[in-house]
Design goal:
CATH class of the domain at 37-167: Mainly Beta
Distance between the termini: 24 Å
Number of strands: 18
Structural class: mainly beta
Number of helices: 0
Helix content: under 10%
CATH topology of the domain at 37-167: Jelly Rolls
Low-confidence stretches: none
Largest sheet: 8 strands, antiparallel
Mean pLDDT: 96
Shape: globular
Length: 199
């Protein structure tokens, strides 16, 4: 198991930026401040294609479990932050809480296969400002989970990533599809062996 708390002011070994955010701070966690009108989505329903959200990635080989905890303060509709697993621009997974109104947000996941995104959600309170996310890989299948305390985990879905190679990018992301300057702070990322067992 490897756990990174971003306690230094330099990126940990093996981590790198994809679309670096205009604002970032390391030390006592990783803070991101988003650029304007940034997003991840491919085609479905809305028609547009966006691949310009901000990610801090590392590369993982074979099966794994990847976990993070993030706190956030939404400013604009659709502000979001969470965990991302990525093969390329047309094949990836993200887990996040997406802000809708002062009353409610969407806890959910997007799975993008062969250039088409889906979106599975549940309504949650916008008063929730912190969440844990976890993705477990077994072959081409993924268990996606969320938690409020890091102890009790809720299954969001089981998904298949058709173009998942032996090595994938795994990391944390943030974006603000209609606004800018959304702030979030990731307390840690943890990589471990896969603990999701076959039935």
């Amino acid at each position: 198991m490897r756990q990174e708390h971003f306690s230094d002011h330099a990126l940990p070994e093996g981590f790198y930026w994809f679309n670096p955010p205009p604002g970032q701070r390391l030390g006592a966690g990783l803070e991101m401040i988003t650029g304007p009108e940034t997003d991840f989505w491919q085609r479905t329903h809305y028609g547009f294609r966006r691949d310009d959200g901000h990610c801090l990635f590392t590369r993982l080989h074979g099966d794994f479990q990847f976990t993070t905890r993030v706190s956030f303060e939404a400013r604009n509709q659709y502000d979001q932050c969470g965990l991302m697993i990525r093969a390329d621009a047309e094949n990836w997974i993200k887990l996040s809480t997406e802000y809708e109104t002062p009353a409610h947000s969407r806890l959910g996941s997007v799975v993008t296969n062969l250039g088409y995104s889906d979106w599975a959600t549940q309504t949650v309170s916008s008063g929730i400002r912190q969440r844990w996310y976890r993705a477990s890989r077994r072959g081409l299948d993924f268990l996606l989970e969320a938690s409020l305390d890091g102890d009790d985990w809720e299954q969001l879905r089981i998904a298949h990533l058709h173009r998942a190679g032996a090595e994938l990018e795994a990391g944390v992301y943030a974006c603000s599809p209609v606004g800018r300057d959304f702030r979030c702070r990731f307390a840690f990322v943890e990589t471990d062996d896969n603990h999701w067992q076959a039935e």
